[in-house]
Amino acid sequence: MSNWVEPITLEGQHVRLVPLSHNHLTDLQEAAADGELHRLWYTSVPSPDKMESEITRRLKLMAHGSMMPFSIIDKTTGLVVGMTTFMNIDSVNKRLEIGSTWYRKSVQRSPLNTECKILMLTHAFETLNAIAVEFRTHIMNHQSRNAIERLGAKLDGILRQHSVLPNGTVRDTAVYSIIPNEWPSVKANLQWKMDMPRN
Question: Is residue 79 part of a domain?
């Protein structure tokens, strides 16, 4: 029996999402070094020296059917500029999470993230017929929470004392979701954001 979420390439005007590969290692190492994102204590961006093992970890989860990892390619430059995933895939209940997402600093606040979310949400709701798409983040990661709320996701609640981070602190996790009847409005809003003129 095939997995509910199969490897696929998703392509928009600005970005291409391709299945993660060890061939993307060098670009991903350079992307992680841009802005030293791995130094932010409330995120889990891999450091350049740990990127190869992170790729291996994600590919193992894909082999077990719980994750579909993507490399994010900026179509302007052709470079891999970050990673994202369908994760915590629940094939029985047709639920999944979009997460473990990061971008090199130089492309943050560009159209790439909005278009990635349009592509992934469209695939989740219109091809996979998901009953819910979740987003989770550290309660202290205000940049991520604001971005999730701008998507139109609703706060389901806070998982208190949810996990222990590598620095020993305990993470409270903010859980958001979008459900199918909300998707048309969310999609229209995201498309409007994409079409807005940029200075």
Answer: yes
Q: Does residue 45 have a pLDDT over 60?
A: yes
Does residue 165 fall inside a structural domain?
yes
Q: In what order do the strands lie in the sheet with 154-164?
A: 10-11, 15-19, 67-74, 79-90, 95-103, 132-138, 170-178, 154-164
> Is residue 199 in a domain?
no
pLDDT at 109: 73
Q: What are phi and psi of 42, to 5 degrees?
A: -100, 10
Determine the structural domain holding residue 77 and report its residue range.
Answer: 10-194
Structure-block tokens of residue 147: 């971005």
pLDDT of residue 198: 59
Burial degree of 64 (CB within 10 A; 0-12, 13-18, 19+): exposed
The number of distinct structural domains making up the chain is: 1
Report if residue 3 sits inside a domain: no
CATH number of the domain enclosing 42: 3.40.630.30
Mean pLDDT of 6-17: 96
Residue 186 scores a pLDDT above 90 = yes
Mean pLDDT of the chain: 90
Residue 84 CA to residue 75 CA, distance in Å, equals 16
Looking at residue 2, the DSSP 8-state letter turns out to be: -
